[in-house]
Amino acid sequence: MKTSLVVLIPSLFYLCVAEVQQLDQRAEEDDGTNVEQASVCGGDVTGSKTNGQLVVILRELEAKLRNTEKQLEDLRGEVRGNRVAFGASLGIDGNIGPFNTEITLVYKNVFSNSGSYNPGTGIFTAPVKGVYYFSFSGHNISTRSMWLFLMKNGETMIHIANHPAGNRHETATNGMTLQLDVGDQVYVRLQRNTWIFDNGNKHGTFIGYLLFPL
């Protein structure tokens, strides 16, 4: 239905513009006598209308159609603005950590990005108010634990953890929907004294996308 409107409204608009131009020409050539034909854009217009009156009606309709076209373009822009998504992996071959303080993980290997994720800082900034979904995963060698936190504006939302369990590879993942305002920031933090491992298999990932605007 939306696709049909996108095609129909501009077509109707340009048809009416052409008719207005034709009527302008007729009005200049005519002496104001009644017209017997009705415009397809003018609705129920009878021969009692003079060319001048009909031109006024059609100009009003033309203005309405221009406004409709503007609203349609604004809607297109809104739809484009609501296409928000990203996905990235750590892009390393080895361990990150352990450190004596928490750090923000930077997912440098970007698979897709509508522009709101910064691969230089690892931070996603919400471009529109809405409900978003985020997911993150981590992998480590379990001689040491791994703790990852999904953060929103400095506050922990959810976390994943692998506890020490010998010398084996462990993977953990988690996800959550979050309501964000414009400018809210979401990122992943590595807990102090823990580590995370990644390689070409791309175990450590961070993704997010807009479910719907508010």
Kindly describe this structure.
With 214 residues, this protein is α+β, with helices and mostly antiparallel strands. It is 28% helix and 36% strand. The chain is built from two helices and 13 strands, in the order ααβββββββββββββ. The strands form three sheets. Strands 3, 5, 6, 8, 9 and 11 form a six-stranded antiparallel beta sheet that branches. Helix 1 runs antiparallel to helix 2. The longest helix is centred in the N-terminal third of the chain and has 31 residues. The radius of gyration is 30 Å and the shape is rod-shaped.
Defining traits:
214 residues, alpha+beta, six-stranded antiparallel β-sheet, five-stranded antiparallel β-sheet, 13 strands, disordered N terminus
In brief:
The protein has 214 residues and is of the alpha+beta class.
